[in-house]
Amino acid sequence: MHDNSEQIVSYLSQYKEETPFWIENYTEGKNVSFIDIMSSRIGYYPGSGYDGMLMEIGNRSQTIHSFLYVDYLLTKHDLIEHLEKPNSVYGYHSIDRIEWKEEDILPNGPQVMNLSKCPRMNPLAFKPEKPYCFTEILERDSDKDDYWGSKRFAITFLCADAIAAYHQLFFGEYKKAPWLVLLQDHAFGCNYDKFGRGGLFDEIIKNSHIKPEYVLCADNTHIWD
To answer: Is the pTM of this model over 0.85?
Structure first.
């Protein structure tokens, strides 16, 4: 997939999305809701770690302005430390960080999941560390142009089970599919189940019919049927 990123960006560019109003007009401390986060196209990355591939492809093609990265192995301290490094997101700088509580994300509470087996973690059950979910609003540096991507975009980091979170957010609460999903089954990523074909994520997709428009699939992962 990494070798094909330029072709992928070129192909997706024909489906550019206008910058959502709330992002384009956002000012520090402005009151927004999680509905705003979910209102436009979503780029979803289960088991994301620090990998910027989905963000790079979605932003450079200007097809996605709201990304959702979900991983239960990243502590908030380590993640923020990484984000605050110089050029963590090259060509962009943060203009604000929005903190979320569980009731902000799932105002109607978690939905029952009728699956052949349960995810290892409850929908938004976090690690023993303090739970977190926050959205980083990023703005393009003044010396960069459209080649780098949109003037602004948002990326939300959620410490949760990415498989259960997909069911709860897209099928349960918001009744919409992400526009683009990146699937990558890391060989040593401590995942309890695979994201690709034959796994629990695959079962959720089949049962819910909440299917993304596009899927990027790493070489080590088999795409769903």
So the answer is: yes
